[in-house]
């Protein structure tokens, strides 16, 4: 399985597995079935349950088409809305455990999802051949919408253990030191721990120092270096976060 190195804000590369063409196609099919089910349900309610078909009588072709577009409008905006609300996923992507991310390490924005959605019109042309060919020949299995928005679709099926996640073993009698950590998000903590773990492996004190300074800056903390080293500080921050958010093992 091919990988992509995403550079974090701390200038450290983290490797992710690229979602395969097959995974993306299955996610697309799942989402397509959901949209088809929605259309069937809406039309059934409109014509059978509420018996509103008479409203279309006497209307010209364009007016009838407009009514159908209004009824089925959620189907058209399904990808961009759900990817925005679900942080890069749709129900199909979630079931397949894949996700849209920015290749520059930042969180994808609504604008990025919108660009992907607009280019979808091109990607699905010729029965989807354009997008399929683009994914096959591009380096990171990117369709045209991904290339234009600077995104890629990664797999979340990596084989990981507790040391690769934000989870930490903490004692039942553990006493936290920095309640300010609740200002951090899961994604912030995941980046902190990934970078810290990598820096420890190669004893990169510069990265550890920069990471420590960044955390202190974000949380507005002043730490006496004679009482707590940078390594001790980051370790405490990780444990405190797990303590306050209940993410203990």
TrEMBL record:
Keyword terms: Membrane, Transmembrane, Transmembrane helix
Residue ranges of coiled coil: none
RDD domain span: 19-150
Membrane topology field: Multi-pass membrane protein
Location in the cell: Membrane
InterPro entries tied to this protein: RDD (IPR010432)
Top-level taxon of origin: Bacteria
Transmembrane segments: 25-50, 62-81, 117-137
UniProt keyword Membrane, yes or no: yes
Gene Ontology CC annotations of this record: membrane
Name of this chain's protein: RDD family protein
């Amino acid at each position: 399985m091919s990988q992509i190195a995403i550079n974090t804000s701390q200038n450290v590369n983290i490797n992710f597995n690229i979602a395969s063409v097959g995974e993306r196609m299955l996610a697309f099919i799942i989402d397509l079935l959901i949209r088809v089910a929605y259309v069937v349900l809406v039309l059934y309610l409109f014509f059978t349950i509420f018996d509103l078909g008479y409203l279309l009588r006497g209307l010209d072709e364009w007016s009838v088409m407009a009514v159908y577009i209004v009824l089925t409008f959620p189907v058209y905006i399904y990808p961009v809305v759900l990817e925005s609300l679900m942080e890069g996923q749709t129900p199909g992507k979630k079931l397949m455990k894949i996700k849209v991310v920015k290749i520059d390490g930042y969180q994808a924005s609504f604008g990025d999802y919108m660009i992907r959605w607009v280019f979808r019109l091109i990607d699905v042309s010729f029965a989807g051949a354009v997008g399929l060919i683009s994914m096959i020949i591009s380096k990171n299995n990117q369709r045209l919408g991904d290339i234009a928005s600077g995104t890629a679709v990664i797999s979340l099926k990596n084989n990981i253990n507790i040391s690769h996640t934000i989870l930490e073993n903490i004692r039942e009698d553990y006493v936290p030191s920095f309640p300010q950590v609740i200002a951090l998000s899961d994604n912030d903590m995941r980046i902190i721990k990934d970078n810290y773990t990598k820096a420890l492996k190669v004893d990169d004190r510069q990265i550890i120092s920069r990471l420590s300074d960044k955390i202190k800056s974000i949380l507005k903390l002043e730490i006496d270096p004679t009482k707590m080293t940078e390594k001790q500080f980051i370790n405490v921050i990780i444990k405190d976060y797990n303590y306050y958010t209940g993410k203990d093992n």
